[in-house]
Write a structure and sequence with these properties.
mainly alpha, Glycerol uptake facilitator protein, 4 helices, globular
Length: 88
């Protein structure tokens, strides 16, 4: 369960930085931080396309694909909600 929570939080953080700043340096730093903090727990995918590719490459168990994608999509939606609420 921890790996799904990490994917959710990492995606939330990464996508929030994208929405809030639009700055390439900040976005790159956010992704690097998310991978450094959560990579050892979940692999640091933070993107459904990456998760699909990792399953295809045999580096992520097939049973983890749907929970990873759900966690990542939920993290993205949470980032959008946070951005909209903080922006006001």
């Amino acid at each position: 369960m921890n790996k799904y929570l990490v994917e959710f939080l990492g995606t939330l953080f990464f996508l929030y930085v994208i929405l809030a700043t639009g700055n390439a340096l900040a976005i790159g730093a956010a992704l690097a931080i998310a991978i450094l903090v959560g990579g050892a727990i979940s692999g640091g995918n933070y993107n459904p396309a990456v998760s699909v590719m990792m399953v295809a490459a045999g580096k992520l168990p097939k049973n983890d694909l749907i929970p990873y994608i759900l966690a990542q999509v939920a993290g993205g939606l949470a980032a959008l909600e946070l951005y909209k609420r903080v922006k006001l």
